[in-house]
Amino acid sequence: MTRLTLRELPRLREEKAVRPPPYDPAELDLGIVHLGLGGFHRAHQAVFTEDAAGATGETAWGVCGVTQRSAEVVERLRPQDGLYTVLGRGPGAPRARVVGALREVAFAGDEWPLVRDRIAADAIKVITLTVTEKGHRRAAGGGLDLADPVNAADLASGEPIGAVGRLVRGLQARMRAGGAPITVMSCDNLLAGGTVLRRLVNDFCWALPSREGDPLAGWIADHVRFPSSVVDRIVPAATDADRDDVSRLLGVRDEGAVAAEPSAQWVIEDDFAAGRPRWELAGAVLTSDVAPYEAVKLRLLNASHSLLAYLGALRGHDTIAAALGDPELADAAERLMREDASPTLTVPPGLDLPAYRESVLTRFANPELPDRTVRIAMDGSQKLPLRLLGTARDRLAAGATPSWAALGVAAWMVYVAKGQDVRGRPLPLDDPIADRLRAVASGVTDPRTLVTRLLAIDSIFGEDLPEVFTDLLVDHVTRLLHTA
């Protein structure tokens, strides 16, 4: 079948079942570099950027999308002139829109000079990143892990292989070219992501020889802003079924198609060094303080997502929707949000917290979007502190018992230790410290031993959790080891 390309757009504009780009993509100039060209960026930030361009008619905000780990996305999108389809899956028939904001794609592993030169170009005003929590390669204290082999290699080489190294080396090229101010915005699930990223960039600079690091750190302080943002849209890994549905709707093959839920949210700290797209016209919230929005998303949506993933996977549920169809698990997710997390939150202006909690469960239950429990279960060592342990600490400090947050943590512990579900099927342990977790927990069947060993990993749990929390975990782990 013919592939989706710019040549197909005139015909697609006549198709009622397809929403085409609101402009001629060929007329867009590059203004944004994005690091981490996965499905989430394509279904989220790129869509907001396209809608902003459609609302204003501006042509300065085309995106250069950079894939970090493999050339697969480039191989899918480059033959399609960067075009791809977002397939909205929700109630009713799937809805397709073709997105044209992505004007250039590159694999940093093979095309680093191109990526470096794009970051250095004055026309680029914004760099965005979706590199996951683990992609930031942080040490236990939150700074750059200088012992990490990727960071060490990037500090020694002008051909970086990590996200922070590529970002800093690109900014270094911009400085040397006498570059204009620029904004770097994290779009990952991190608390104060902009502050985190600024610290990692500075740590990288100060780890360089002083003749390099000192002037670079000073230039970045004067010329680069690091706003935080909150991103929200459920975007599972695309499947052959998604691509087949797109082919049926478009009449051409789209190898870069992604499926997503209808809902999307983007909250952005309005702190930019130069220009930016008018994202607020596309529905984004621009604010001086994203922290309340971050806490709501991480402690309600992300926390209940993780709880359902671990409990659901252990019970043999393949998808989040199936896990939520289990009444006991649905009750646990709702009570985690209502009883443990909500009392810890400062509610953003205008947000109806009960309605938000209800919307989370409705979205998770979407049968048209089969998001896999084992996908959400990835990288637990990075996610637990942000999603569950902050809530637990706040409730303990208030004299309350965070039973449901503890259940989520306990479910992760049993997931790590058992490595299989109730049907004996293996559960993948996809985590940056998977080897350490296996060495500590695999095969351990005594609940207190398991809890004690995992709590000793201070990069996850710190050293401040009281004995009462340990006892909570032991109670939950005891039950889960015998029933999950």
* CATH-defined architecture of the largest domain: 3-Layer(aba) Sandwich
The number of helical elements comes to 21
What gap, in angstroms, lies between the N and C termini? Answer: 46 Å
The percent of residues in helical segments reads 40-55%
Q: Tell me, what is the CATH class of the largest domain?
A: Alpha Beta
Give the averaged pLDDT, no decimals.
96
Describe the main β-sheet briefly: 6 strands, parallel
Counting helices, strands and paired strands, the structural category is: alpha/beta
Low-confidence stretches: none
Q: Any idea how many domains?
A: 2
CATH superfamily of the largest domain: NAD(P)-binding Rossmann-like Domain
Question: Which fold name corresponds to the CATH topology of the largest domain?
Answer: Rossmann fold
Q: Give the amount of beta strand, in percent.
A: 5-15%
- Read across the widest sheet, the strand sequence of neighbours is 6-3-2-7-8-9
| Radius of gyration from CA coordinates | 23 Å
* Number of DSSP strand runs: 13
* Shape designation: globular
3D structure, described in words:
There is one protein chain. This protein has 484 residues and is α/β, with parallel strands linked by helices. It contains 21 helices and 13 strands. The strands form three sheets. The chain has a six-stranded parallel β-sheet with strand order 6-3-2-7-8-9, sandwiched between helices. Strands 1-5-4-11 form a four-stranded mixed β-sheet, with helices on both faces. Strands 10-12-13 form a three-stranded mixed β-sheet, covered by helices on one side. Helix 8 runs antiparallel to helix 9 and helix 11 packs across helix 17. It is globular, with a radius of gyration of 23 Å.
